[in-house]
Design a protein that fits this description.
single chain, 152 residues, alpha/beta, 5-stranded mixed β-sheet, 31% strand, globular
């Protein structure tokens, strides 16, 4: 059996107003290889863009990998690291307070991708000295600007 490739991923999402126009960015690092991607949506939230960044980054992987995913989103990181997502699933996608889980559609997609890969989430401080996190923020904000410049 072949050893899994190890990939490092950085992600970030941004929103101009919340809700409002949003963007996401990601950087994937594998050995000497680097891939950047970004995208946008006209009407979204910051949390949706954070989740979308992780989803789109993991979708770029062509085979099962060991992934270290770095994010400045406590919402995203804590859902996996503190086990919230497992409890939500077990409780029919309801929170401990019996409310529907927000962004369930994205959580389900992300969970499926995390099952396909061995993903470890890491929280980084946003807007600090982390070069790759700052690059993801720049990609997300540029995606918003591109979206807004295309509007009449």
């Amino acid at each position: 059996m072949r050893e899994m490739d190890r990939v490092t991923i950085y992600t970030d999402g941004a929103c101009s107003k919340n809700p409002g126009p949003g963007g996401w960015g990601c950087v994937l690092l594998y050995g000497a290889h680097r891939k950047e991607a970004s995208g946008n949506e006209m009407q979204t939230t910051n949390n949706r863009m954070e989740l979308t960044a992780a989803i789109e980054a993991l979708r770029l992987l062509k085979r099962r990998c060991e992934v270290d995913l770095y994010t400045d989103s406590a919402y995203l990181c804590n859902a996996f690291e503190k086990g919230w997502i497992y409890n939500w699933r077990k409780n029919g996608w309801q929170t401990a307070n019996k409310h529907d889980v927000e962004n369930r559609d994205l959580w389900e997609q992300l969970n499926a991708l995390c099952v396909s890969h061995d993903v470890r989430f890491h929280k980084v401080k946003g807007h600090s000295d982390n070069v790759e996190n700052n690059r993801c923020d720049q990609l997300a904000r540029t995606a918003i600007k591109e979206l807004l410049s295309d509007q009449p």
